[in-house]
Every structure is written in C-alpha cells, then in structure tokens.
Amino acid sequence: MRPGLRERLARGPLRRGAGRWPARLPRPHTLRARLTAGLVVLLAVSCAAVGVAAVVELNGFLTGRLDQQLRETGERFPASLEHGGNRPSDHDGGDGDTRRQTVGTFGARLVGDTVTNAAVVGSSTGTGAQNVPLAAADRRTLAAVPADGRGHTIDLSALDDYRVMAVQGRDGDVLVTGLPTEPVEATVHRLELVAAVVFGAALAMAGFVGAMWVRWSLRPLSRVAATATKVSRLPLSSGEVGLWPRAPEADPRSEVGRVADAFNTMLGHVEEALTKRHASEERLRSFAADASHELRTPVASIRGHAELALLHPGPVPQKVARALERIEAEAARMGEMVDDLLLLARLDAGRPLERLPVDLTRLVLDAVTDAQAAGPGHRWTLELSEEPVTVPGDAHRLHQVLANLLANARLHTPVGTTITISLETEETEETEKPTAVLKVHDDGPGVALDVQPRVFERFTHGDRRRTEGVQSGTGTGLGLSIVAAVAEAHGGSVTLESAPASTTFTVRVPAGDG
Predict the structure, then answer these.
(1) Rounded distance between C-alpha atoms, residue 458 and residue 449, angstroms
(2) Residue 24: left (phi > 0), alpha (psi -120 to 50), or beta?
(3) What tens digit of pLDDT does each residue of 232-249 get?
C-alpha cells in the first residue's frame, strides 16, 4: 500500500527520467499565443499550489484527528491482550472494551523488543478481537516504534497502512494501539480527484476565455501588423509612390495606440521622402531627355563641319587634318552617348516598345557577324537551338542588346579570348510560358567583385584588370545600362556571373509570338 502523503512528499523529487517533461517543448511564436500560454501557466501554477496546500492541510488535519482518537482510545485494548490472548479479561473491561473499540483497531503488546500479543478488532457483529499473524518484518517495524505517545505511520503486510501510538505499560511492557489510515487516504484521494477535475475544467475555461480576451486586446496591434504587411509589398525602389494605407487609430493612452501612432507618423515621413525622391528623379529624367534632344543637332553639326573640312580639295596641314579627325571621332562618340541617354530617358519614362514577333536567332547571327568583323582577334563560337527562337518585342532594341553585350565582351577582354554566344528556350514552374535565354560567355579576366554589384548602373566602367590588353577605350559606360533597361521593358531580366576566366551575361525574355 502507499505510505502517507507527508512521507511521500518527504522523499524528495522524482528520479531522473520518471515523469520528466520533454527536453524541448514547442514554443508559441505569436504574441497572442505567448500571452495566453503565460496566463494558463500562471493559473496552472496557482491551482497546483492551492491543490497541494489543500491536500497537505487536509491530510494533516485528518491525521491529527486520528492521533487524537488514538489518545482517547488509550492503551485499554492492547492491555487487555496481556491476560487473555485474543479474549479480553474482566479485569480490564472484558468484551465491553472490545465492543467499545472502532472496527479495525489494532493492538499489540511488546516485552522488550518481542511482540507477545497482536490483535485487531473485527466487524461490529460481535466477533471480538482477532489475532494477527505478523511477519518478521512487521515485528521489527512494531519494535522500532518509539514509546513517546505520538502517532507514527507504519505499513503492516498482514493488514494495511496504520497510524500507531506506543506507550509504556504498567508492567514495563510497551502497548501499541493503531487505527487504519485507509479512511484518511480515501478522503485525501477523493479531494485530489475533485481538485484535478475542477482545476482542469477551470484551466480549460480560462485558456479559452483568456485566448479570446488576449485576441480582443491585441486586435489593434494585429491591424498595425496587417498594415505593415501591405506596406512591405508595395514597390518602393522606383516610380511614383501612391497613398499608403494607415494603421487604424487606437487609444493613445495604451501601448498599442502609441505604436500605431508612431507607425503612422513614420509612414508619413517615408511617403514624403519617397515623393520628393520621385519628383527629383522626374526632374532629372526630364532634364536628361531635353538635354539629349537639344544636343543632337549641335553635335551633328559639329560632325558635319568636321567631315566637310576633311573633304576640302586644297592642301591641309597634317596637324589640322589630325585635329579635324579627332573632332569628327569625338563628335560621333558624343552623338552615340546622346542617343543612349535619350533612349534611357524614354525607357525610364515608361514609353512602350513595339510588340512584334522577332526572330531572335536571326538577330544573334547578324550581331555575331558584325562582332567578328569588329574583333577578328577574338574567337567567336555559337550554340543555337535547332528551332528558331521567337520573342515578342522591338527588333531594333533587341539587336542593340546583342550588340552591346558583344561589344562589351570584345572591348573588355584581350585579343585571343574565346566568346561563346548561346540561345535556347526553357520552361520553368514559375512561368507557364517559355522563356528565351541568351548567354554571352567569355574566358577573359573577369569583372572585379567591387564592380559587379553596380555593373548595370549608368557610367560604370570596368577596372584595369578587365581591360588589360585592350587597344580601344572602354565606351561610354551606358551599354550595360541599356541592356538592363531594354530587357526589363520586354518583361525580362539580365544577370551577371563572373570569376577569373569565366564571365557570363544571361538575358531572359518571354518567348512566343506575342
């Protein structure tokens, strides 16, 4: 049988591994779940404390009543065993003493450390005292009970858990009286069961009500989070910024209200800053477009006058002729730069391009033929699919993309570099339509790591390591910017992967007939 509650609690914590909680419990992620879990845990700890205190107090109270009953019973019953074994004598009260004892009362008489008599009161039908066959362990247990007139809980294998009290007899013997602890344990166990059911129901109800209360309390914060999610999905990198959503107003005296107010204020500042940025970009774009348009005529005039002077039939000094040639070359270069700036300004303004079926395979063949003529010292290779690749778009701008990529590979790699141009179509799970993939690969020195993040920005020039061995200049710095802008205008993209002896520009645009 189980020992008393106090003795069970006195044994200390459970062994390692017995009734242990898992090493890792799932942690709630949301604030609402954490608050609800914290509320339930605090309530569970409080209920557990109340339950343990109630059980311990009740057990102590009932045990004290049992001890009081033992003191009132006294040693009459075990003393009666001295003269008649299991039949009490008339000298000590006879059968009357037995009838006055509670059913289950245990009595034992010890002389020295030896149990001479042991009996228990039977049922109330008059069976009287009954001898108890004690095992050796039971006799040792009784002998170890101190005769101090206090209650002690023992376990008798022949009976049950008993609360016993030992006193000194008049003949120098020790008289032990005991009562069963089963009624006490039954009452305590019933209280434990009732407490578990009541507290469990209270925890379940508190968890449900607490979750609803926390959800209601955090509803303004959820609205702020929803607004922040909407703002995070807005395109903020460029373009005009529309009116942003605002978090609903809440009580400014609460923490959530202050968060919502600060969040709305921050959104206002960011929106104002982005609006100013967009206005500045529009002014700069308009200036670039106007300046490019206005510069085309004077640049063309300068170039025309230089060509006309070179065609003069009369003798021209060599230095003057050289100067005119340089004027013509720089005027041509300036004209190309003006045209590129004007194209970028138009693309930035969102002007639509033509959407006609373009044979990209034919454009690749023409562009590579032109590149071979411009760079005979490079090795040019083609990797084309068997079927022609057709894309919807502007043929002139797509040809410009090819020309710029091939010119970039030729101008920024030394003579003898192998340049490979490949064209194919691919289908991915992200897009239902096929995609045309154009790659320009060279085994040159590669693009420096510090240049790669801004290689598609305007007026970006390659480093010296990339341009070693190149005879001509590195261009205007707008070629790759035009490649990126035209690819984006066609709904595509361009990427760079570069390392020493391996540089690849990859252009992806939607394929099809438009």
Answers:
(1) 17
(2) beta
(3) 777 766 666 666 677 777
- Given a contact cutoff of 8 angstroms between Cβ atoms, the answer to whether 88 and 98 are in contact is yes
CA dihedral 302, 308, 309, 315 (to 10 degrees): 170
d(CA 121, CA 203): 46
pLDDT at 460: 78
Which residue(s) pair with 493 in the sheet? 508
Tell me the sheet residues that pair with 167: 175
CA distances from 213 to 135, 198, 203 (A): 62, 22, 15
Q: What ranges in 218-254 are assigned the alpha helix state H?
A: 219-232
Q: Give the global pTM.
A: 0.49
**C-alpha to C-alpha distance for 42 and 45, rounded to whole angstroms:** 5
CB distance 131 to 87 below 8 Å: no
Q: How far is CA 167 from CA 76, 110, 284, 338, in A?
A: 11, 10, 109, 119
Amino acid at 391: V
Q: Is 261 helix (H, G, I), strand (E, B) or coil?
A: helix
Could you tell me the two tokens for 279? 């206005």
**385-434: per-residue pLDDT in tens?**
888 999 999 898 899 899 999 999 998 899 999 999 999 998 866 667 78
CA distance 368 to 421: 8
Residue 184 half-sphere exposure toward CB, CA atoms < 13 A: 27
Q: Tens digits of per-residue pLDDT, 184-203? A: 889 999 999 998 999 889 88
Residue pair 435/425 in contact (Cβ under 8 Å)? The answer is yes
Q: Are 80 and 88 in contact (CB under 8 A)?
A: yes
Pairing of strands 418-426, 435-442: antiparallel
Both tokens of residue 148? 């101090």
Close Cβ partners of 494 (under 8 Å, ≥ 6 residues apart): 456, 480, 483, 484, 487, 505, 506, 507, 508
Q: What is the average pLDDT value for the chain, to the nearest integer? A: 79
CB 153 within 8 A of CB 161: yes
> How far apart are alpha carbons 436 and 488 in whole angstroms?
14
CA distances from 226 to 56, 237, 246, 291, 292 (A): 51, 21, 10, 45, 45
The Cα–Cα gap between 98 and 80 comes to: 9
Q: With contact defined as beta carbons under 8 Å apart, do 161 and 184 qualify? A: no
**Residue 23, pLDDT above cutoff 50:** no
